[in-house]
Amino acid sequence: MATDLALASDGSPPVENEEQFWKELAAIFSRDCAGSHESIDDALRAWLYLVASCRELYLVTEDDVASCSQLLVDSRTFCQNRDYVRTQIIYSLLQEDEAGPIHAIANFMLLDGRSDEAAFRRMMDEGCFPRLVGLINGTRDNDRRLHRLLLELVYEMSRIERVRPEDLALVTDDFVTYMFQVIESLSDDVDDPYHYPVIRVLLVLNEQYMVASTTAAVDPASAEEAPLLTNRIIKVLSLRGPDFRTFGENIILLLNRETETSLQLLILKLLYLLFTTKATYEYFYTNDLHVLLDVIVRNLLDLPNESTSLRHTYLRVLYPLLAHTQLSRPPHYKREEINRMLWILGGADNTHFAPADETTVRLVDRVSKVEWLSRQEAHVEGEVARKLVGISLSESQTASSVSVVDVAAVMEKPGVKTPSRKDDQPGADALKDGIQGTSGDAPPLRAEAATVAVAAKPKKIRPEVPKHRHGKLLTPLPSPSAPANGSGHGNSVVPNGGGATQPQKKIPPKAPPPRRGTRLRQAASAGNLRGPESTPVS
After folding, report:
1. I need a surface site. Which of 71, 172, 223, 421 has the fewest CB within 10 A?
2. Helices and strands: H and E segment counts in the chain
3. Dmax over Cα atoms in the chain, in whole Å?
């Protein structure tokens, strides 16, 4: 039956309904292929044809296509012949031109690579990266579902495996410009699912350029063999930054929301290059820089002590952000909050943070020397104190000559979530007054503010406020059935002799005092509630 399915090519669907489709798909891998390459090829052709021809009919969502791929992954055909099946699928991707089969192949490759990173390594070795870039260019206008899937596959491959320099050289300015234009065209809907894959591909391409350039700087021998690469992400933003500012707004929003460490690092690496490249110093709007600074300050204070690499990367981005962008010009934004954060991160007289490591101290000292962060008189007094006491750091300790290499080298396994100081210290309070200030533009995010572990104070129990009526305290007189200190009005409780209490019968309230200067005689008993008799009016 598999051969019959493969030979059907009249354009009509090979099945009559969705139920029959899933039965036929399961039947393809129900029989044992006995390790024969010919029988494996027949099964793969049947699977590919059936999925491709029914994609528009019964596979409406990407999850439906993924279910078809999962059947192949779980089959004995794949489990017993993993390498051969991957080879055939990869060769089909390199040769296929029809959108339907490419969609089925790309979905399977994405599912297989996410479960086994060796599959992505095999794809890179076989030259799938330039093929996928070409397919993205070819499908960008006629098949949006497939285009998005190809973007996802490029992103997942590139963040797991290093792209070969000769393959990375095939990425053109036109391709990068087109990606930025896609983001601009979707600027009215930041929640559009198409936004996310495009942005992530640009971020991972930037990381690949950084790794390639730093590798060439560290290992000159490899630079002689590899082609000279230009970071086309930075190049396009340097030449046409004002045309593509929606991308900048989105990566700040993404950093604001993101909890995955690897994606935060991708964003920080691009920000570092933007703030250290003169042509892109002012790529962002000033208001966006304010939001970005709030996010960085909050995340720095929220990171637990063990997240040293991520903390160092944030600090390396913070220095050029404060020194090179519009934030360096008055009115200076949140100067006191930044100084207080640096004071805390440096470990100065702080019991809530562990002692800072040497790199953190060096980076904090570097940021603190941004000219506008401290007033001139404080700077002069600090210099005098350091000379007298002898506490100072040398130029080599404060310099950051290898920051680019360090930023490019920081990696994290995909899927790892960034821990929060709140996770380790549940009783910590937010430093809203001391760090975030009272401005209303601080973004509400994963950690609303930086947290510090403080001893929780017991809540003070306030005494009950006594009830009043007409401005006078209610002090009912004792009655034979109630103790002298009874509450009088309301549902008072009276001991019944056995330790339990029972509600006392309600007593009518006193009449309000008359509006005259003479003082009425107080009632002699609880039953005498009427005022003095008055002469009736006839």
Report:
1. 172
2. 26, 6
3. 121
CB 346 within 8 A of CB 398: no
Six-digit token string for 446: 């994963």
Instruction: Kindly report the pTM of this predicted structure.
Output: 0.71
Residues 6+ apart with CB under 8 A from 100: 51, 52, 53, 55
| CA dist 379 → 343, 371, 382, 385, 393 (Å) | 15, 9, 5, 10, 15
Closest residue by Cα to residue 109 from 93, 98, 97:
93
Q: Which residues contact 34 (CB under 8 A, 6 or more apart)?
A: none
Q: Can you tell me whether residue 430 is helix, strand or coil?
A: strand
Which of 132, 238, 130 lies closest to 177, judged by CA? 238
Rounded distance, CA 497 to CA 453, Å?
A: 50
CA dihedral defined by 335, 338, 343, 347, rounded to 10 degrees?
A: 180
Long-range contacts of 67-70 (CB under 8 A, 24+ apart): 68/25, 68/104, 68/107, 69/104, 69/107, 69/108, 69/111, 69/112, 70/111
* DSSP H/E element including 378: helix 376-389
Strands 493-495 and 501-503: what pairing? antiparallel
| Cα gap 150→93, rounded to integer Å | 11
Q: 291: which 2 tokens?
A: 């939001």
Number of neighbours of residue 54 by Cβ within 10 angstroms: 23
- Characterize the bridge pairing of strands 451-452 and 468-469: unpaired
pLDDT tens, per residue, the chain with 538 residues: 333 333 344 556 677 888 899 999 989 988 766 668 888 999 999 999 999 999 888 898 999 999 999 999 999 989 989 999 999 999 999 999 999 999 999 999 999 999 999 999 999 999 999 999 999 987 777 788 899 999 999 999 999 999 999 999 999 999 999 999 999 887 666 556 667 899 999 999 999 999 998 876 666 666 566 678 899 999 999 999 999 999 999 999 999 988 888 899 999 999 999 999 999 999 999 999 999 999 999 999 988 888 888 999 999 999 999 999 999 998 888 898 999 988 888 876 555 556 777 888 899 989 988 888 875 434 444 443 344 334 344 444 444 445 666 666 665 556 566 666 565 554 444 444 444 443 444 444 333 333 333 344 455 666 665 555 555 555 555 555 544 444 444 454 444 544 555 555 667 677 776 665 545 455 444 445 444 444 444 4
Other Cβ atoms within 10 Å of 8 Cβ, number: 15
* Residue boundaries of the structural domains of the chain: 1-161
Pick from 106, 118, 120, 94: which is nearest to 48 by CA? 106
Pairing of strands 429-430, 451-452: antiparallel
